[in-house]
Amino acid sequence: MVDRDVICNRISYIEDNIRQLNELAKLTEAEFLSRFYYVASAKYLLQTAIEAMLDIAHHIIARQRYRAPRTYAEVFSVLVEHGILPAESENTYRQIAKFRNRVVHLYHEVANKEVFQILKEGISDIQAFVKAIVAYMGKNS
């Protein structure tokens, strides 16, 4: 059985990160890129929000005894297979996981402009994940 406290804790963490990311998203590209701490903050907030998403997904997969994913990107595919995430979002979430991997392992290759673009266009994908998990929890409580 899925542990509601684990899920709720991670969702709360993601929502806090989203609030902070939305503040950074108010900046113009020039403002954002002009201060290293804006870029560093956005990278960290995105990375840890994605980590929390992966924690939630891994928890559900383990507790429900779904097939074990081989990669972080595949974690979201497993949730799609079980109707927790919509099929049309699978590629988006796989790209989110790949971004996390690049920030963690290939940090020197992540362009600051890419971080800004994700800040402007990608937060809604994280919010949609939270909404899907909340809906799943509502059906399975």
Report on the structure:
The chain has 141 residues and is mostly helical. It has one domain (4-140): Up-down Bundle (Four Helix Bundle (Hemerythrin (Met), subunit A)), CATH 1.20.120.580. It contains seven helices and no strands. It has helices at 4-25, 29-34, 36-64, 72-81, 90-105, 112-121, 123-139. Helix 1 (4-25) packs antiparallel against helix 3, helix 3 packs across helix 5 (90-105) and helix 3 packs across helix 6. The longest helix has 29 residues, at 36-64. The radius of gyration is 15 Å and the shape is globular. The N and C termini lie close together (9 Å). The model has no long low-confidence stretch (mean pLDDT 96).
What attributes characterize this protein structure?
Type_VII_TA_RNase, 0% strand, Four Helix Bundle (Hemerythrin (Met), subunit A), single chain, mainly alpha, 141 residues
Could you tell me the radius of gyration in angstroms? 15 Å
Count of distinct strands = 0
- In the CATH hierarchy, what is the architecture at level 2? Up-down Bundle
How many domains is the backbone divided into? 1
Strand content: under 5%
Spans of at least 5 consecutive residues whose pLDDT stays below 50 are none
Task: Indicate the topology.
Layout: H1 4-25, H2 29-34, H3 36-64, H4 72-81, H5 90-105, H6 112-121, H7 123-139
Helix pairs in contact: 1-3, 1-7, 3-4, 3-5, 3-6, 3-7, 4-5
Pfam family, one: HepT-like
GO molecular function, one term: RNA nuclease activity
Family: Belongs to the HepT RNase toxin family.
